[in-house]
């Protein structure tokens, strides 16, 4: 369960609203079931008390919503940021994508978010209600008694391999600060690297062929904030609405991953939202790992204003062939 | 592409205007042979080459793509090729990660004086890609006749 | 009614596959089921449904329409249509079967879309009754009986047996093909399953959702509803809901220059996309609110107005589980349609 | 083997290009064997395309009574139109249609006094009806044509208007331009104001076409003159792809502009949400 409670967040937000420090709150809104939570802008205390939630299913990263919210709202926007969200927040500031003065950021600790598919794998389908407590209690149509699920067993992939419990940006912190973790997030990349090219090709072929080009990965990505995406621009020559074949499936994902390389904070939103469960994070992490290995450790968003590896160079960088040879 | 039953790879060579393109010119002036399957695309600087160019070249039927620029330190624009070096290292590593033969891509630094190196590089690269055979993993069937 | 053992299904698929291509839901590496071309040994998934709807079979995500060769000032149009091959789709759920009715009314109305019509003609649909609906299911809202789906053949799967009943001539012909592998059966087991499923259906969280508030002629009532603003505020403008939706049928016509000629193809499009209505001299839907509204107004008001009250939603629940921000037609119906369900 | 599909076009050839204004050209199109590609009714449209460039919907400006060819008056404003403006005589293109609901020339319009009001390139769809009415002159009452543009040079079909339309019995042409110009001794002012000044009697059926802002104010003006919305027709334009009410792009309310329009009676427009 989460260490700070929803009522703590609501009370704090209500106080900031009532003293006029902020004029809107970006938060998670109760859905139809207990897990389908929607990002929403709350304008007053009543709205917060009616529908604001904070539980094990609040995965949405609000950083990108600040682009629109700070332009729309008069006064400051209060935003709740989980540790991984703060990296995206900083990265967007590095790219001058929103006005920091219009935001009041509250850092909140996060114990990891649950993946509903993994919950269902344990509880079965037909969920009637979910109670997030010490354990997650799932009541379904097909089980007589609620099924207990441990959060640790149903974490989203990005949370199971959490890179940091430390908030790198906030105006105020609720609860305790955490640390940057020694994450195993590159293990799967290394496993893929250890495969033969044929195996790797088959792996990606299988995953990418499921892509329906809904653009959810792109549209949710805090690093994808171009006014006009090259894939939407008829003048670009690569505009493409649906993957006509395997080439176009690969093209989109390679170019997208490349374009966010060095700016991707590995927040994992792309993989979370993919309706086809394509492990998109493995593309982003490959770039991060390669850049770390060849150009020195770099974490996008760790600080505002840092220079990403692909907009930087040294005189003695390895050659492309060396990068490949080094890995064998 | 198949010519008289024999596989002749189509190679796209992106050459920077200041060094490598001049190097290719010199190779020509010196009557140094390199295969006609190498199609040169002149770019103002090697760092003009966007990853989409490389992928599009494969889409449009290339069996191998080589990028040639000034030697590090010699860039006409001071630092363009340093950026190229990082970008292409990352891109080619990613292509390899997706299981695409790493021998299909190469970066080579060729100066305006290195006509011989240009010809030798192209001969070597064409031989390397010929050994691999046709590009199947990054092909777009619509573009194959 | 005919029946066969569940364990004998591989033989049934093999028998049908000898003359027609067979597709069935198969579990993929990602844990989701997807319609897959049958080959020996593939196992029929137990999943409730596929992420991608079976609309692909009749209205594929991309499809080449024609090719052009241009030379100087002359143009040649090349008809590249091929006769569709016969195929059978196994395991289509009641909601998705109904979605074909929705698509038919668009593509088979004059002028008939020959691409769609040809596939429709060559496809045989074997539907599968539901026995374990999910909380996201609400096909009942649209009058669909999940225990007795339409289709050329209806199938019911119990723990160890599969029952078949033909509904059309095409379906009867299919059952004839596999007659030797099936045997005559009473409908007792099926009836028992249907009873049981119906009690579950009645308990679904969305069982009381109704369409009463919606339908043709309600444009004025809902178009300027103040809630559109709030409902659409978090919308990413992606195409997930549209592309997993079995009834969304908007398409774009685009061209691809292959280097040897031009191929004109069509592909799925989404009214949620910002450039959907953009043209040379402007765009009539500039905000995500307008685009979001269009999608739901079309499903709940415009489509029924033109199609005898038939809604362009079948309650499959895909958008409920797949929307990145969990905004969906149920939330819209409940908010805009007042105290609903 | 395959039935005809409306999405598959036929070939057309441009046999004449007339430069009407600095940004409008009129293209004459026939099939390669010199015939009309298909019959149409006044107000209907056709999809023209240049493979590799794009496809777009254009109203057919020639009258159905012209049995030799079709004409399209096209303003340069996007990819396809830019390309067409560079096209020469003999260039082939693809053409499919006819699409959309035509003007009710043989029903509601029959026997009526007609008032045509157009602005700029908005004359293009009206020219088809005007010439149709002129051809079957005895079927209609008086014809008034109010046409305005930015300047004299921007008046479409100027020669035809002056030399043919204005000379017909019972046809009154009222031209106007936005700003005074040397060599122009006609009316100066915007179309909506001119309509009000002319003060037409309400025994007419009006047909409007032009920029949205002109339509809006002219319609207000007509209503102020006592016209009922059921007496006023206009044509809409939205992005279209299929032309047959399937692709969903031009859907506004329960209507598809390509199929249920482009011609609408103004009271029908009131039923549509304000999205066009």
Number of strands of chain A: 9
The helicity of chain B comes to 25-40%
- The number of helical runs of chain A is 13
Largest sheet of chain B, in brief, is: 4 strands, parallel
C-alpha end-to-end distance of chain A: 43 Å
Radius of gyration of chain B: 15 Å
Averaging pLDDT over every residue of chain A, what do you get?
94
Largest sheet of chain B, order of strands side by side? 4-3-5-6
Q: What number is the mean pLDDT of chain B?
A: 94
Portion in beta strands of chain B: 15-25%
Q: Which topology of chain B does CATH recognise? A: Rossmann fold
CATH architecture of chain B: 3-Layer(aba) Sandwich
Strand fraction band of chain A?
Answer: 5-15%
Distance between the termini of chain B: 10 Å
- Count of beta strands of chain B: 6
Biggest interface goes to: C-D, 55 and 46 residues
As a percent range, the share of helical residues of chain A equals 25-40%
Structural class of chain B: alpha/beta
- Poorly predicted runs of 5 or more residues of chain A: none
Structure commentary:
Chain A is an alpha/beta fold and 328 residues long. Chain A has helices at 6-18, 45-51, 65-72, 83-94, 116-123, 157-160, 187-194, 197-208, 216-220, 246-260, 269-273, 281-295, 320-327, and strands at residues 24-29, 38-42, 52-53, 77-81, 103-107, 127-132, 136-140, 147-149, 172-173. In chain A, the strands form two sheets. In chain A, strands 1, 2, 3, 4, 5 and 9 form a six-stranded mixed sheet that branches. A three-stranded antiparallel sheet of chain A has the order 6-7-8, with helices on one face. Chain A is globular and about 60 Å long. With 341 residues, chain C is α+β, with helices and mostly antiparallel strands. Chain C folds into two domains: 2-203, no CATH class; 219-336, no CATH class. Chain C has helices spanning 9-17, 94-107, 114-122, 169-177, 188-203, 219-223, 227-232, 240-244, 288-306, 318-322, 329-336, and strands spanning 2-5, 21-27, 33-37, 62-71, 74-79, 87-92, 123-128, 153-157, 161-166, 183-184, 251-257, 262-268, 278-279, 282-283. In chain C, the strands form three sheets. Chain C has an eight-stranded mixed sheet with strand order 3-2-6-7-8-9-1-10. In chain C, strands 5-4-12-11 form a four-stranded antiparallel sheet, with no helix packed on it. The model of chain C has no long low-confidence stretch (mean pLDDT 93). Chain D is 20% helix and 31% strand. Chain D has helices at 79-86, 123-135, 158-163, 191-198, 212-224, 257-260, 266-269; strands at 10-21, 24-30, 45-50, 54-59, 70-75, 92-99, 113-119, 143-149, 171-177, 187-188, 204-209, 232-235, 251-252, 255-256, 263-265. In chain D, the strands form three sheets. Chain D has a seven-stranded mixed sheet, with helices on both faces. In chain D, helix 4 (191-198) packs parallel to helix 5 (212-224). Classes of the chains: A alpha/beta (328), B alpha/beta (145), C alpha+beta (341), D alpha/beta (276). Chains in contact: A-B, A-C, B-C, C-D. At the C-D interface, strand 4, strand 5, helix 3, helix 6 and strand 11 of C face strand 4, strand 6 and strand 13 of D.
